Amino acid sequence: MSVLTTTNIDHYCVFGNPIHHSKSPLIHAMFAEQTGQVIDYQTRLAPLDGFVETVRMFIAEGGRGANVTVPFKLEAFTLANQLSQRAQMAGAVNTLSFVDGKIIADNTDGIGLVRDITQNAATPLRGKRVLLLGAGGAARGALLPLLQEQPALLTIANRTLSKAQELQNVAQALSFADVVAKSWQQLDEASKQSFDVIINATSASLQSEVPPIPAHVFASTSLAYDMMYGDTVTSFNRYAQQCGAKTRDGLGMLIEQAAEAFFIWRGVRPDTTRVLAHFRTKGSV
Ligand code: NDP
Fold first, then answer.
1. Catalytic (active site) residue 182
2. Binding-site residues, ligand 1, Cβ < 6 A
3. Whose C-alpha lies nearest to ligand 1, atom 14?
4. 20 to 30 A from 31, CA-CA: which of 54, 178, 214, 243?
């Protein structure tokens, strides 16, 4: 009998490199306790050139599912036998289920973002003007869930304009018309347009940088959302606050994407507000 199946506990993990910093084991332990589910969830460091072997080993040990984080989300996409529409749109995968010898893959990052904005921050997106900054994996993952909320307009701005245009094309192929791609310079146009929700899906905050976007995109009623989170206010959110906007970081997105993965695996939806409140109090994610 394999290592993991010697107990009655279902085993899950998160693959990444590095991975020691991950809060996912604690988040899932809280979900499990809350819902009465008996699971074990650990971190698994995969070598940079050994992701597939590490996943296969976990499956062979009896693992039931896994999350995938940096830098393996694209490799997980190619490894999957079956992809959800969200994963197909994102071109990346963060949630794997191992069922009947198959690897079934999903991407819960985008729905996690949308739930945090619409439910936790009580900010509806329907009929709103939304500005999405960035066109990397996180922005791509957010595209479909954002459009399904039916905003009046979605503008995607990115340092490399062609990548924003690629996302625009993906959206238009799905008959979402009101999607516009812009460069940073094109945001600074004469109309001085502001947005209801501005989402930073660039990785600029990781280097304490801010995308060079004009102050007029923020109004006093705008919600500025930085997907990044940390112990202190991110550089993007500091700038947005200086421009008068309300701000929120990506901690809620992290917890909501985990909740969606938990739901996929266990069929039960945990109460994320309690978990989010716990981490906000600890201030340690
Ligand atoms: P990618 O590497 O796939 O994409 C990076 C994006 O940021 C690209 O659009 C890139 O532009 C842009 N960019 C990078 N550096 C700068 C800079 N200095 N100024 C302006 N733009 C820049 O990263 P991801 O999409 O995976 O991640 C983006 C962010 O989202 C990260 O901060 C990550 O931590 C966060 N995230 C948070 C999650 C959560 O649960 N809260 C989940 C997933 C991601 P270009 O195309 O021109 O290179």
1. no
2. 109, 134-139, 158-160, 163, 201-207, 209, 211, 227-229, 250, 253-254, 257
3. 203
4. 54
pLDDT of 160 reads 97
pLDDT tens per residue across span 89-122:
899 999 999 999 999 999 999 999 999 999 999 9
Domain 110-249 falls under CATH 3.40.50.720:
yes
> DSSP characters for 86-139?
HHHHHT--SEEEEETTEEEEE--HHHHHHHIIIIIS----TT-EEEEE--SHHH
Distance in Å, CA 94 to ligand 1 centroid? 15
Pick the atom of ligand 1 nearest to 257's CA: 40
User: pTM here?
Assistant: 0.94
Homologous superfamily of domain range 10-107+255-282? Leucine Dehydrogenase, chain A, domain 1 (3.40.50.10860)
Domain range list for the chain: 10-107+255-282, 110-249
52-90: pLDDT as tens digits: 999 999 999 999 999 999 999 999 999 999 999 999 989
